[in-house]
Amino acid sequence: MEPHYKKIYVEWWKIQRSTIYGVVGFVIVASALGFGSWYAIKNNWFSQENVTTIPKDAARILSFEGDVRIIRAATRETVVVTKEIYVAAGDTIQTQADGKAIVQMVDGSVLTVRPNSTLIIKDNSSIFGGANVRVSLDDGQLNVRTDQLPENAENIVEMLDSETAIKSQTDASFNADAQNAEIRITRGSVDTTVGDTKTTITENEFAAVNDGRLASKEKLLFAPRPVQPTDGAQIVDPGSGGSVAFAWQDESTLPIAGYYIQISRSPIFAADSILVDRSSLTSREFRLAGMQPGTYYWRVKSTARSGQTSDWNPHFKFTVVRRGSSPAIDVTGWNVERVGGNVHIISGRTQPGLLVKSQGNQVFAASDGSFRLQVSSGTGEVPVELDDTRGNRAGFVLSLRNSRVLRRF
Residue 261 above 60 pLDDT? Predict the structure, then answer.
């Protein structure tokens, strides 16, 4: 007896056309949903924001660069800032040589804590529609900007033996160390009290605190204006090193006693990267020969005969290049990792030893060509520049959303 098998026959010609269309449509929709989900997860569309429980009336660190730390008053814990975070009354903000933090206070004022600075938040509270802000600058530099302060607002900066009350619509700069303090006003006015004496310092005025007293006010000394090399200039090295002539102009009418120039391989002028550190120059020019190909930064400040010293001018960048040397610089494996808020870590792989820079931050590519660089941007894209020791460079505008190169420059 022969075995019996079940046989199933499908008569394809009897399947309705609408059924086929339905199956094809289902496959297309499922594929689109799958791809959309993968793309959304890759770009962190579904990831929760890093939300920190912020105490009432706490100040906020809106942005930061480099190494910034907070010492919590309640626990004495030191927190390294890696995202937008709060600062409460009693906390201390410390910036290292490459660090800078921008802080918004309860009255709407904005504080910029410069590198190598220590700032204590003593009060940041609001009551009955007013606001009380009080900070103490132990050392370093602090810039304070106010717009229209609330009624009954009090915004105080302490330095050494002084208290400075900042008024509405004011831009003020404070410098302090263990022996001296300086106050510069470029907009608006402040009231500074030392002992029982109150002094009003107004727009474009300068005053210093020495030996428990406020020195006489004087006209503000502005930073010199660089003339050459211009920002972004290229200097050609003919083979024996480039020769660079530096020149600047005074922006103030005060009698000048001398100038101070620094030339560095780093935009933050780290101590181990400074090539020239010359003070007491009486001429408004300086020449340096034998500069090897690469990227350099320079800045200058002046000292008046009264003893007042200006701020540094915003640094200028220039590049020494060797004639005819232009090998291609490229990057593979671009990747953007979102740390929190507007802070991202950019990584990739390029030629070992290349200098990778963005927004004033910089790292060198490791022996295997890999690099990791922290940036902060709320625009969704960021420029990244790479330089080699021969002065060659390449620039990329990178998307922070999908790690793609949008364009080169």
Answer: yes
